[in-house]
Amino acid sequence: MTHTTTYGLLIFEGADELDFVGPWEVFTTSSRARDDADTVVLIAERPDPVRCSKGMRVLPDHTLDDHPPLDVLLVPGGRVEAQMANPVVIDWIKRTAAEVNWVTSVCTGAFLLHEAGPARGRRVATDQEHQDELEARGGVTIVRDARYVVDGNLVTSQGVSAGIDMAVWLVGHLRGRDHARRVMYHLQYDPAPPYQADEPL
Amino acid sequence: MTHTTTYGLLIFEGADELDFVGPWEVFTTSSRARDDADTVVLIAERPDPVRCSKGMRVLPDHTLDDHPPLDVLLVPGGRVEAQMANPVVIDWIKRTAAEVNWVTSVCTGAFLLHEAGPARGRRVATDQEHQDELEARGGVTIVRDARYVVDGNLVTSQGVSAGIDMAVWLVGHLRGRDHARRVMYHLQYDPAPPYQADEPL
To answer: Which residues of A are designated catalytic?
Structure first.
């Protein structure tokens, strides 16, 4: 790992918004806290706006055949079926995963890493409602009770919001725990999910 | 409040990505869990792509003068200075806030609600690093130790990730605690921020 890090986040039609925007916010905030040392880019098959899973339209920064060399690859989940059957995207994931230092996924993005190869023979996390389905594809061990799983240079997380925790772990692993805590401070990442108790209104 | 809810999320050059994508994910997931009953839209001054605070480019669904009637207004934070000096946006916030059932903000979005009026004389939360600055503007009570603050129909949250908690609170208030818990389940919103302890690596 060099002194700077280039993070490439794949996006595609049906990618879930928070799956990639959560890590995007963590990685860009980490870069800001390091005098903008790092680069964080969105990469798609085509340069057109991508319509995400819940309808948000986002513009990619680069296409699959025109992006800077990456240190970290992130593959979000969402509606992944079409991409699992898309050889252009699957081949790109396979080639890119072989070149980067870290391969990561959020939610059902693990299905794309399985299809492309990097998740084969590894311990992975995925969306809790799709664990059996991924296991049935074979050649992969599903860790069911971990929010994210680090197996060598492969880091996979459970659904949607779990990508934030995984991304914080990664920037802490790369730049230190104190740095990760600064990032959490900037994001005020001190979560307080409501309705943990049933109390009189 | 009718049986369906239309959520309008303002975006602008420099709006922070997670400030609005966190609530977007919560509101759209809430709608999905209700057979797509609700509508969630991004609204900007112009129809062009908006470059957010950390560089992500997002397309609005509507412009300020061409959007459906809203039930909930959300104003994100980020680089808000230019918008505080933009009478078109400030006037729109003022008019829209008078028409909706709920007025909400995330992070420094509270500065825009203060400039436009809805936060005047109210108890509000804002980004922890900008609390003194908002207080100094006068006519507002800063609640410093709450992740989000409900004062009448005004709901304001602290920085960035706090918008997720606020949005979950709102869908639970509108549709019930069990519904909010289903939304959290779909988002796997059971956060586990890393590096809470200092332990040997």
So the answer is: 107
Q: What is the ipTM of this complex?
A: 0.96
Say what the alpha-carbon torsion angle A62, A79, A109, A43 is, to the nearest 10 degrees: 0
Rounded to whole angstroms, the Cα distance separating B168 from B164 reads 6
Residue B30 has pLDDT above 60, yes or no: yes
Per the listing, tokens 């997380």 go with A157
> What pLDDT was estimated at residue A51?
98
In contact, B33 and B182? CB cutoff 8 Å: yes
* Residue B52 a catalytic site member: no
- B-interface mutation test, from A52, A165, A173, A188, most B Cβ less than 10 A away: A188
A88-96 average pLDDT score:
98
Nearest to B167 by CA among B152, B179, B178, B157: B157
The pLDDT assigned to B201 comes to 62
Q: How far is CA A161 from CA A176, B21, B22, B200, in A?
A: 22, 11, 9, 27
pLDDT digits (tens, 9 = 90+) for A160-196: 999 999 999 999 999 999 999 999 999 999 999 999 9
Instruction: Collect all residues of chain A within an 8 Å Cβ-Cβ radius of residue B195.
Output: 168-169, 172, 177, 180-181, 184
Collect all residues with Cβ–Cβ distance below 8 Å to B47 and sequence separation of at least 6: B59, B60, B63
Amino acid (one-letter) located at A36: D
The whole-angstrom separation of Cα B82 and Cα B80 is: 6
Coil/strand/helix, residue A32: helix
Give the residue ranges of DSSP H helices in chain A: 17-32, 81-84, 87-99, 109-116, 131-136, 162-175, 177-186
Residue A104's nearest CA partner among A70, A134, A81 is A70
Confidence category of residue B197, pLDDT binned at 50, 70, 90: confident
pLDDT tens for residues A119-160? Answer: 999 999 999 999 999 999 999 999 999 999 999 999 999 999
User: Domain A6-186 class?
Assistant: alpha beta
As to burial, measured by CB atoms within 10 angstroms (0-12 exposed, 13-18 middle, 19+ buried), residue A24 is: buried
Q: How far apart are CA B110 and CA B107, in angstroms?
A: 7
Contact assignment for A18 to B17 by CB distance below 8 Å: no
Length of chain B: 201
> How large is the average pLDDT for residues B130-154?
96
